[in-house]
Amino acid sequence: MTRIAILGADGATGREVVRHGVRAGWDVVAIDRALPGQTDRVEGVVYREANVMKGGLDDLMKGCDAVISTLGVAFSPSNALSPPPLYTEGTTNIVDGMERAGIDRIAVISAAFVTDQPNLPLWFKLTVVPALHNILEQMRDMEAQLEKRPNLKWTAVRPGWLIDKPASGALLVEDEFLPTEAFRCRIGDLGAFLIECLQDDRYVRRKPAIGAREDEKFEGPGALGAEFAGL
Question: What is the mean pLDDT of residues 76-91?
Fold first, then answer.
């Protein structure tokens, strides 16, 4: 049985990864800056508390075969202007801890929009992507940092525009660029795919872009406005 450490395990995507990891029959170590309440924990999962920005993660990950980082910066005006360095410094601290713990496999969350995506709707390219510029720059730096580690077996998953829905099982995957007409990605499908990445060596040192087709009501400017209004 494989033992995995999940960083950011109590976030929306992290919780999905924990559930899918358990369903896959893996031992799961869930790590976040605060422990969830007893009623929010998954049976059989080991929960540990840590702040990735402070480092010192090797003891918490020791004995694991692989790591999944679901670290992410939520969109807000302040984060758009000056995002905290979770993707850069946080990922560096994770990988440094992995090296000390003897772990060489990691999957992280990036974003499809770190590179020009020819299949994006024009309105999305002209509005959302520029607003995410500073956050996307950090993701690019994170990917570059991973590429510079020759002994690290990394995967940088590039989801499309995330939607808070359970897995549909209809996920489409292409190398680096989103599949045609599939620029949204369900958080449930992202969680399942991160687990899949660790089960399949074809994603080592790759940047798979993932998304799925959704109803039109979830793909237009109106959906974006409704989601931002709920922030």
Answer: 87
Q: From CA 8, how far away is CA 219, in angstroms rounded?
A: 27
Nearest Cα to 112, choosing from 199, 21, 18, 209? 209
Rounded to 5 degrees, what are φ and ψ at 225? -60, -40
What is residue 200's predicted lDDT score, i.e. its pLDDT? 85
Question: Measuring CA to CA, which residue among 30, 23, 34 is closest to residue 4?
Answer: 30
Q: Check: CB of residue 157 under 8 Å from CB of residue 110.
A: yes
Looking at 40-186, list the stretches that DSSP marks H as alpha helix, in order from N- to C-terminal side: 58-61, 77-81, 91-101, 122-131, 133-147
Query: Residue 189, class by beta-carbon neighbours within 10 Å (0-12 exposed, 13-18 middle, 19+ buried)?
Result: buried
- Residue 224 is predicted with a pLDDT of 74
What's domain 3-229's superfamily in CATH?
Answer: NAD(P)-binding Rossmann-like Domain (3.40.50.720)
CA angle centred on 7, ends 160 and 58, rounded to 5°: 140
Looking at the predicted structure, is the pLDDT value of residue 1 above 70? no
User: What are the sequence ranges of the domains in the chain?
Assistant: 3-229
Scan for tokens 């003891």, then name that residue: 59
In the block, which residue shows the tokens 């499809």?
Answer: 112
> What span, in angstroms and rounded, lies between the C-alpha atoms of 106 and 73?
19
Buried b (16+ CB within 10 A) or exposed e, 3-29: bbbbbbbbbbbbbbbbbbbbebebbbb
Instruction: Please report the pLDDT score of residue 229 as a whole number.
Output: 59
Amino acid (1-letter code) at residue 116: D
